[in-house]
């Protein structure tokens, strides 16, 4: 029995049939659609810690941006982030 929480099924629906019919473009399309769904999954993460511990710096690094970039979480030597954004 398949696990309903399994995010990596044995088969991607429609791929086997498409390949049996020599429809490689159709198989590729189904695989691409499946992968796009996997990369667009909502994820909520909470970061906790003492004031000045580097939480905002961590969040900026996790997002792949520098502390001074536009849209970065504010950072500094004193408490700079008091509201969740």
From TrEMBL:
Residues 41-85 form the IRG-type G domain. Keywords: GTP-binding, Hydrolase, Nucleotide-binding. GO terms for molecular function: GTP binding; hydrolase activity. Signal peptide: none annotated. InterPro entries: G_IRG_dom (IPR030385), Immunity-related_GTPase-like (IPR007743), IRG (IPR051515), P-loop_NTPase (IPR027417). GO terms for cellular component: membrane. Pfam families: IIGP (PF05049). Residues 1-21 are annotated as: Disordered. The keyword GTP-binding applies. The keyword ATP-binding does not apply. Belongs to the TRAFAC class dynamin-like GTPase superfamily. IRG family. This is IRG-type G domain-containing protein. It comes from Oreochromis aureus. The lineage of its organism: Eukaryota, Metazoa, Chordata, Craniata, Vertebrata.
């Amino acid at each position: 029995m398949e696990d309903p929480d399994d995010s990596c099924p044995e088969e991607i629906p429609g791929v086997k049939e498409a390949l049996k019919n020599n429809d490689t473009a159709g198989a590729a399309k189904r695989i691409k659609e499946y992968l796009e769904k996997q990369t667009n999954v909502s994820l909520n993460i909470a970061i906790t810690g003492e004031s000045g511990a580097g939480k905002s710096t961590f969040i900026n690094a996790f997002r792949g941006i520098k502390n001074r970039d536009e849209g970065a979480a504010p950072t500094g030597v004193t408490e700079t982030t008091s509201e969740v954004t």
